[in-house]
Every structure is written in structure tokens, then in C-alpha cells.
Amino acid sequence: MGNKLAFTDIADHKHDRKTDLGSFECTYKAEITSIHKLTDLENLYRIQILDPVERDHFDFRPGQFLMLELPGIGEAPFSISSSPSRKGDVELCIRKVGSLTGFLSKVERGTHVGIRGPFGTSFPMEKMHGQNILLIAGGLGIAPLRAPIAHVQENRSRFNNVDIIYGTKDPSQLLFTYQYDMWQADDIRLSIIVDKPDASWTGRVGMITKVLEDMFAARDDDFFQNTYAIICGPPVMFKFVCNMLNKRDVPMQKMFVSLERRMHCGMGKCCRCNIGSTYTCLSGPVFDYWTVMNLKEAI
Amino acid sequence: MIFRVIEKPELKALFEIVSAENRVVGPVEVGRDQDNHAIYGFGEVADFNRIALGYAMTSLPAKSYFLPYKEDMATFRLDGKDWQKTVDYNMDAPFVFFGMHACDINALNKLDKVLMGAVYPMPYYAAKRQNAFIIGLGCEPQPYCFCRSMGSDTALHGFDMFITDLGDRYFIEILSDTAFNLLKKIKTTEPVEADHIKYMQAAAEKNKKFTTTVDTTDLTKILDMEFQSDVWKYWGDKCLACGTCANVCPTCYCYSVEETVALNLATAQKTKMLYSCNFIDFAEVSGGHNFRPERHSRLKYRYYHKHRGFVEAFEESLCVGCGRCGESCLAEITVPEVISSVRGGNIQHGK
């Protein structure tokens, strides 16, 4: 016997489970099949996995995110904005803010991108059956909420009262305006508020908390104890909204937030999304409020 | 566990057997400091006499052999709107690590938990870790060592064999069949009762030499209680946010990923680089919001990750108490002093 050490093969499993060593950089090649301009800054990208078998295999739950890769440009996490029941492709609502998203805003239909995922926790929609749903979005926070909204629309009879409260800085930043009628047609109450109105704005003016205050006055305690809240927005919004809901006795385990962090791996390795040592990519991005209360500097 | 005892010259024979056909990495003297004290580092060794068996501590940890500071994860061939991705886990030939202290072995064991044991095991790390033959080596506690407080002064697993100096001979713990088979090729004897006594005496002698301690009792709770404490501001004001502590830490594994396009635009590369949570943009998100913009909040985060978060996740601290961060910190911030101050102790900063 020689003294040369023998190789230990690390990829000793089949590559079909998410937790296999071989799946670490497992990228689905996908194509941007449509680009829909929502505002000056945001586009809605429809992305389809090219391989039909991989496409059938791909499944996600509302609230989960994926890593979108443009070879040579970079990779970043985006929450999925389309309905999980919509098979074949996903929609991502992306704001032009950095180098990757800036590049994305210039690409054409037909461009091939890489996607990894889906990753992270999701909104427990089945648990919410029979309950009131309160969806609160600030700004781009509507993007991850569009998946649970679609689920509610598709299963409307399973839910009691459904409200969407949506606020942006000014009317030009409102996203998915073409869907508001459809939401309302599905018996979803939609309250929109903007902070800085323009000349043509006839709706409400102020912060999201103003809409909440009115709702608190109009509905009884019983309503809020049987309400699930789904919240996503800029960091400052979480604090105010969650505190208000907590004071109104919405149970903490029924309040869900989707937190934003800059993941570099999505798989609980790089630590860039850590809150303490809790990985937002593994334990989040969807957290219940009790968990958030126990994490330092989460919101 | 199986034990053997060897005469001291046999160690050289063992080195020659493993180095004949394998790459061997070990502790070597890499230079001298201004006081003419040896500076040690890990490097490739072909000559047994170069190995510094009595080395104090290497300035840089062993992690670069398992988690390179910079590593290519994948390459792309670009072709118009299309591309091809090739993933390479950078499997290198198996290698021998000759002379790793218990703290560094324990550091790898901690990395194993998050990089191999958790969901999504990391093949880049596993490829190197599982193909390293590790020979542990007993050490002499230094003034800055507090590994005993962190429970990392002895290694229970994570190595192939561990060598302890009994004075006249070496005592060897054997943990793998590879090690067992290698030891067949040199002269070994079964330890007798007198050897066991000598081993225990050596351990007791070593334990007496620790001078620095860290009180970790209830530390997870205390860190939560003292989250708003002014001591964080005190240390944050001193911290230069240079990232040296993470660089020399044997358990810091945070990284960033970057992609670059080759000048001919035909290929691109995805590269992972170890990063430090002390850097200003560590927790910055798109659009510019920074969750930890102040130095003290980033320094605090580092302590929370090591001494609170990791404990919560894996029931042990992510710090092995090697003391490298304190030794290399330009602002002379040390773990024992920071933790003592958080626990309400007086700050006696400076050496």
C-alpha cells in the first residue's frame, strides 16, 4: 500500500435534493420572456426556466425569494411577485437601484439569466383560512405581497375580510395600478395613501398609520384577534405598523413581516443577511412578529 | 480511542512517509518581529527540520487552506444573450496538515457545523476539509490564550491523529483508519499505565499555565441585557473597522460574492472573497439603507454572532479563544477585555 492519501469524493449523493453538496451552485438557466414597465424605476420581469423538466420541478410558496444571476454582472435576491399556482414562469418586480438592477433595466426580452432557489420561509396561507387578512405594504414592499394577494384572490372564499393598505411617497410610485380593479372585484378592500400628492391626486394623503388608525376606530377587538397581518415596507414602517397592530392585540404569531437584507448566497453561509446570527435567508425573509421582537436590530 | 507511544525520532520518520507522496502543510517560522521573536505561519513544508514543533501561534489561522481568502466559484462562457456556467468546487489533491493546535482544530469543527452540517452544505469547503489529513499537536499556553475558557483547549474530534509531548516520547491519539495504517509504518508501542500518568501530568501542567480567562457564564443573556450599553460605544470609538480581527480569526467565514467579466468579454467569473462584518457596507442593502452604519454597531454584531447567535444555533460559541484578534488588533481591542467590560468589569485598556 502506498502512502498517497486517497480522495474522498464529496459529491457522494444524487443531486436531486436541495441539501446535497452538488446543489450549492445549482443554477437554472431561464429566459426573460417579458418586461413590463410599471413606473420610471420599476419593471415587472417575467422569467421562464428553459429546461421543461426543471420548469415542472420548480415550485415555490408565497413570500419566498430567489437569487437572480446575470453572468459577469452579479447576483442578488428578489422576492417572487407572482402566484405560486402559476406554473411555468415567475414574475419579479425590480427597482433600478444598483449595478445589477441597472443592467436589468437595459436588457431585452430573450436575455438568458440564471436563477437559484426558491429560498427562505413563506407566508403560512393555509393557516389563515377562515380569518381576516390585512396586507400592509409601503413602497416596493408591495412586491413580495403580490404573491399572497394572488393566493387570496384564487382562494377568496376561504378567507373572511381582506384588506390591502398600500402607501407610497407620491402617486407616480404606485405599482400594479392596473390590478386595483381586479383586487376590488374580488372583494378585497384597497386603501391607498400617498405622502406627497400631485395636482391630479384625489385620494388620501398621509402615512399608512393614518389608514390603520381609521381602521382601528371602525372595527371591534374581535376583528383584530381573528386577523392575520402581512407587512412589508421600508425599515421605519415596520416599527410603527407592528407596534400599532400589537397595541390593538393582533396576536404576534399572526403578524408576519418580510425583511429585506442583501444576501450573497441565499443558503445560510455568507452571513451578509444575518440579524445576530439568524440568517434572514434561512429563518426568513418571512418572520412572525414574536421572532422579530427577539431579534436585535431586525426592524 | 486508540493510543500509541513513539520515540521522538520516529516523528521525523512519520513526516518522511507522509511527505513522500503528499503535499504537507505545517507551522514554520516566517520572520522575526522587532523584538526578535519568531513569527509563525502555516506553509508548505518538504523538510522536517523546518517544522516549528514548539510554535506559539501562527499569525494567520489555518482557514486559508479550507476557506481561501479568494476563491473562484464558477466560470461563464458568454455568447450574446446566452451563456454557459461551469461550476468547479476546486477539489485539490488530498493534503497533510502536520502540527495543528487544538484551538485551530476546534475552529474547523465549528466551521463544519455551519458549512457542512447545516442545510445547503458547502462543497467548496467540504472538498478541502474532507481531503485534509490532520495531525494535531499539543501546545504551550501563551499569555493571550483563553481557549480553556471557551472549551477549546483540547480537541475531541476533527483530526486524524493528535500528538502530545511526554518529555522523552510522544503520545498519539488515533482517530482514523488512515492514521492507524500510517503508524504501522513507524515504530510504535502500546502505552502502559506509566504513559497514561505522564499524559495526565502533562495535561495538568499545561492547564496551570493559562493566565487569561473569560467568564462565559450566562453570556448569551448578558449580551441581550447589555445590548444598549455604553461599553459598545467605547469600543466602537476605538475600532478602526479595518477587518483585521476577521482576517486572522480561524472561525470567521462571512464572505461576499462578486462577478467580473474578462477583458475580451468572452468569459466571466464568479468569485467569493472572505469579508468582515466590521466593514461599513457589510449590512447595506440596495438603495443605500445600512442596518449597521456605526462602527460600534458592527463591532457589537461581531460579538453577538460569535458569543450569542452561534450559541443559540449550535450550543457552543463561535470563538475558540486563540487570541489572534486581540494580538493583531491595531486598536488593541481584545475579546477578554470586551467581554469583561460588558459584564460590568472595569476597562483597563492598552497593553
Description:
The complex is a heterodimer of chains A (299) and B (351). Chain A has helices at 52-57, 99-104, 142-154, 180-185, 208-218, 221-225, 235-247, 280-283, 289-293, and strands at 28-37, 42-49, 65-70, 74-79, 89-95, 112-119, 132-138, 162-168, 189-194, 204-205, 227-232, 255-258, 274-275, 278-279, 286-288. Chain A is α/β, with parallel strands linked by helices and 299 residues long. Chain A has two domains: 21-119, Translation factors (Elongation Factor Tu (Ef-tu), domain 3); 125-293, Rossmann fold (3-Layer(aba) Sandwich), CATH 3.40.50. Chain A has a seven-stranded mixed beta sheet, with helices on both faces. A six-stranded antiparallel beta sheet of chain A has the order 4-3-6-1-2-5. The longest helix of chain A is centred in the middle third of the chain and has 13 residues, at 142-154. By secondary structure, chain B is an alpha+beta fold. Chain B folds into two domains: 2-66 and 91-208, no CATH class; 219-251 and 277-342, no CATH class. Chain B is built from eleven helices and twelve strands. Chain B has helices spanning 9-21, 102-117, 123-129, 177-183, 193-208, 219-225, 230-238, 244-248, 295-314, 324-328, 335-342, and strands spanning 2-7, 23-32, 38-44, 70-79, 82-87, 95-100, 132-137, 161-165, 169-174, 188-189, 255-261, 267-274. An eight-stranded mixed beta sheet of chain B has the order 3-2-6-7-8-9-1-10, sandwiched between helices. In chain B, helix 2 (102-117) runs antiparallel to helix 3 (123-129). The longest helix of chain B is centred in the C-terminal third of the chain and has 20 residues, at 295-314. Chain B is globular and about 65 Å long. The relative contact order of chain B is 0.15.
Keyword list:
heterodimer; A: 299 residues; alpha/beta; Elongation Factor Tu (Ef-tu), domain 3; Rossmann fold; 2 domains; 6-stranded antiparallel beta sheet; 15 strands; 23% helix; B: 351 residues; alpha+beta; 8-stranded mixed beta sheet; 4-stranded antiparallel beta sheet; 12 strands; 32% helix
